[in-house]
Structure formats: structure tokens, C-alpha cells
Specification:
This protein is mainly α. It folds into two domains: 41 residues; 43 residues. Helices cover 76% and strands 0% of the residues. The protein contains five helices and no strands. The longest helix has 26 residues. The radius of gyration is 15 Å and the shape is globular. The termini are far apart.
């Protein structure tokens, strides 16, 4: 996905155009273009933007982001448990 963001940015030259095309938050596009941010991280702002653009209401977005956060925390705890 990061490569796709960078390719689109090179073609379009604008964070907002890339964000609209790939259904991402413009800040996330900028982060990946400038810093090459890690793909494994889930940016809550990007996820919220995606859910709102799919027509979800604020309550649905809030619940889905809470579920996402809980699953990420659970995943991190599992990794710590197995790496010890």
C-alpha cells in the first residue's frame, strides 16, 4: 500500500488528490510520502475517514474504532506472551 501511495503521489503531485483516489486521510498520505510510515500501524484517523466515506454514522465509527483498538491491543499482548 505504501508503494501505491508513493506512485500515486508521483503521478498526481497532491496529498489531497491521492487521499481522494485511495480513500485515505490526507495526513496519512503525507506521512507515507515523507516518512515512509510503517504499513502495519492502523491510523485511527484514516480508518475513521474510510468508515465515514462508506456512509457510517458517528456512533458506528466510534464502535468500529473501539473494536479495532481492542483487537490491536490483544494482538500486541499475544506477541509479547509468545516472545518471552
Amino acid at each position: 500500500m505504501i508503494d501505491k501511495i508513493r506512485e500515486r503521489y508521483e503521478e498526481l503531485g497532491s496529498y489531497s488528490k491521492v487521499a481522494r483516489q485511495l480513500n485515505l486521510d490526507p495526513r496519512t498520505v503525507k506521512k507515507h510520502v515523507l516518512e515512509g510510515g510503517e504499513e502495519s500501524e492502523v491510523d485511527p484517523a484514516t480508518e475513521a475517514y474510510k468508515l465515514f466515506s462508506e456512509g457510517k454514522n458517528p456512533l458506528q465509527v466510534s464502535v468500529m474504532l473501539s473494536d479495532l483498538k481492542a483487537s490491536c491491543e490483544l494482538s500486541l499482548r499475544s506477541k509479547d506472551r509468545f516472545s518471552s
